[in-house]
Design goal:
Number of helices: 11
Number of domains: 1
Distance between the termini: 36 Å
CATH architecture: Alpha-Beta Complex
Largest sheet: 8 strands, mixed
Shape: globular
Helix content: 40-55%
Length: about 230
Amino acid sequence: MFSVIIPTLNAAAGLEATLAALSEAKASDAQFEIVVIDGGSHDGTPDLATRLGARSIAAPRGRGTQLAAGARASREPWLLFLHADTVLEPGWSGSARTFIARPNAQSAAAAFRFALDDDAPSARRLEAIVGWRCRAFGLPYGDQGLLIHRDFYDSLGGYQALPLMEDVDFVRRVGRRRIVMLGSAAVTSAARYRRDGYLRRGLRNLLCLSLYLAGVPPRHILRVYG
């Protein structure tokens, strides 16, 4: 029932763990595919994805463009968009299937609980802030995954070819009341937070979101994001 769509760009270092976490569903369901959409990696990402059982296709660089290309190339009715540095915790497929069984699931979308692969107290504080943001505003980011039926995805116009904020743009079209938060966690790499500092990176992300909501074009926000 699932097509897992993963955009990549030089993601070989973490892709194996991401794909391994999907194995619980893939092993038990013939209607399950993994589509890796590569934006021009030079570290062997497409070959690695193929060796690990995914279908690899090429697309112009840009996460929004790659996500849209993956949706077009996928075959199953339910689409799960996932970042290449995000590892779904064991039991994720049960949470996803519980959502799919809901009466109005085909007119809603689901995201996983945000978590970081870091034991630092700063990581726990950031996770709590993200949890509040999702509850208050219905704004999960792409590193939390997004599960949606193909028909609903198409009716909303799909992901746009944006260099940044493609995830916020899309979930805003889904609408806060139609976003369901799942109990299972999507564990994302904290490398950027460790490199830049939790406070600095968090404030930068908040600034980017504020600029986008104020109408600044994503191509300009990209300079701030880094």
